[in-house]
TrEMBL record:
KW DNA-binding (keyword) present: yes
Protein name stated in the entry: Catabolite control protein A
SUPFAM superfamilies to which the protein is assigned, alphabetical: lambda repressor-like DNA-binding domains, Periplasmic binding protein-like I
Segments forming domain HTH merR-type: 1-18
Pfam families named in the record: LacI, Peripla_BP_3
UniProt keyword ATP-binding present: no
Length: 326
């Protein structure tokens, strides 16, 4: 790979001169500039972003930490972030935290070593010192903090809507699948759902789950029907778990939605392609990412920020795992 030294040698100038041309900083006479630009083009040299940032002491790098991009919800967040950041000339370096505090700390240190100027993190540990001690702005996304810049969707409202819709469509023997206790958005939607069920005097069952992973979703679905075979309505903790419930219901010979209605949470792209397609609560993930990026850019560029805590609305997406209202 061509380096800045190769370009300097080709153009017959110093590395410092090439740096000034690349970073558009400091005086370079027109003839020298043309020689350097010709050498860069001829050698197909791509400036190293970290080198650029070290020279300018002002990078355009943003660190992005997400729990697990094998869950289709998170790539949608990342896409919204990247689209907005690209529009403003910023670049992203990324890491999966796997909800592991040590791995998260390691990535944050890596980001700092790479001279990032801001961070976006979906974390279960927003109160940890590693974040409060950072010298760069941080925006929490989806999994957030009540007193730091954050962007999230209205999970409690989403849980309320799921319960209202499944009841309105005729379910009365309802099981609510509670998401992992350590994940705040999962608890918000769970509380919203059981609030409505309690308000309407409807008894319900709860299946506790400890992850959102594909590998474990099947076991939660099996446990649900082992314990509550006569369930006629399931409010799932997310779309992956809802998909496992559909799969297990079919294996047991249950008809969806005739015998059993199911509502998911997230509205990941695959949900519309399932058979039957999944009714769910849509989190505007791409918009959440864009909003988080926009908020971080304002903090980096020290623009006036009206709201540092941004909550986006959710919506019910009616598909084939719920019956239409007569
Ligand atoms: O599906 C993954 C879940 O974890 C989503 O519901 C999202 O809220 C994230 O926190």
């Amino acid at each position: 790979m061509m380096t800045i030294k190769d370009v300097a040698k080709k153009a017959g100038v110093s590395v410092a001169t090439v740096s000034r041309v690349i970073n558009e900083s400091g005086y370079v006479n027109i003839d020298t500039r043309k020689k350097v630009e010709a050498a860069i083009k001829e050698m197909n040299y791509t400036p190293n972003e970290v080198a650029r940032s070290l020279y300018k002491r002002k990078s355009k790098l943003i660190g992005l930490l997400l729990p697990d991009i094998t869950n289709p919800f998170f790539p949608q967040l990342a896409r919204g972030i990247e689209d907005r950041m690209q529009e403003h000339g910023y670049r992203i370096i990324f890491g999966n935290s796997d909800e592991n505090e040590e791995k998260e700390l390691d990535y944050i240190q890596t980001f700092i070593q790479n001279n990032v100027i801001g961070m976006i993190s979906s974390t279960n540990f927003p109160e940890k010192d590693i974040y409060s001690n950072l010298k760069i702005p941080v925006v929490f996304l989806d999994r957030t903090s009540n007193d730091s810049p954050s962007v999230y969707a209205d999970g409690r409202k989403g849980g309320r809507i799921a319960a209202q819709e499944i009841i309105a469509r005729g379910s009365s023997k309802i099981t609510v699948m509670q998401g992992p206790a350590h994940i705040k958005p999962a608890q918000d939607r769970f509380q919203g759902a059981i609030e409505v069920l309690d308000e309407m005097g409807i008894t319900y069952h709860v299946i506790q789950t400890s992850s959102f992973s594909h590998t474990e979703a099947e076991q939660w679905a099996v446990e649900l029907f082992d314990k509550y075979i006569d369930t006629d309505g399931v409010i799932a903790s997310n779309d992956i778990v809802a998909t496992a419930v559909i799969h297990e219901a079919h294996r047991l010979g249950k008809r969806v939605p005739q015998d059993l209605q199911i509502i998911g949470f997230d509205d990941i792209p695959l949900s519309s392609l399932l058979s039957p397609s999944l009714s769910t609560i849509r989190q505007p993930a791409h918009d959440m990412g864009r909003e988080a990026a926009g908020l971080l850019i304002k903090l980096i560029e020290q623009d006036k920020v009206e709201d540092k805590i941004i909550q986006l609305p959710v919506s019910f997406v009616e598909r084939e795992t719920t019956r239409s209202i007569e």
